[in-house]
From TrEMBL:
Annotated PROSITE patterns: HEXAPEP_TRANSFERASES
Protein's UniProt name: Sugar O-acetyltransferase
GO MF entries: acyltransferase activity
Superkingdom classification of source: Bacteria
Keywords in alphabetical order: Acyltransferase, Repeat, Transferase
Domain Maltose/galactoside acetyltransferase: from-to ranges: 1-52
EC number, as in UniProt: 2.3.1.-
InterPro entries the record matches: Hexapep, Hexapep_transf_CS, Hexapeptide_acetyltransf, Mac_dom, Trimer_LpxA-like_sf
Pfam families: Hexapep (PF00132), Mac (PF12464)
Coiled-coil annotated spans: none
Family statement drawn from the similarity comment of this UniProt entry: Belongs to the transferase hexapeptide repeat family.
Amino acid sequence: MLAGEPYRPGDSEIQADQAAAKAWMVEYNASLAASPDARRALLSQRFGSVGEGAVVRPPFHCDFGYNISLGRDVFLNFNCVILDVMAVSIGDGTQIGPAVQIYAADHPRDPEERAAGLEFGRPVHIGRNAWIGGGAIILPGVTIGDDAVVGAGAVVTRDVPPRTTVVGNPARPVKKTS
């Protein structure tokens, strides 16, 4: 799975990792009234890395957690979902609106492979100082460049260059800032 090869989601090791993530999410999602430091300590228990000042407002959902890396001062608003079957990295200072969904999980296009229960993943990278509007969906394998803006509700199917604003479904550039 971590190498991007096809895998079976029912594998016992994968199921055990997801069960641990579910138990962690119960605790994390009950921590809304906790201090930011207490929530960051919980994030550090599960995530690959958590930069200083990073904030994830509960509720939050993920597949595993350990494939997620947050830079300094990253902000994820309420109700974000990250399907982290592969690496999902979010750069310093990036702000992510409510109900954003980031998918590293993917499915074969071939119907026989799908019928066989195979899945695979592709990493997602979001650069520093990006802004992702509420309800946006980031698809597997996408890279969003530094200082980019993704409009609310956009469905990002392709890489977004640095300093570019994209909107719509599928997301298309509307302007590039200097």
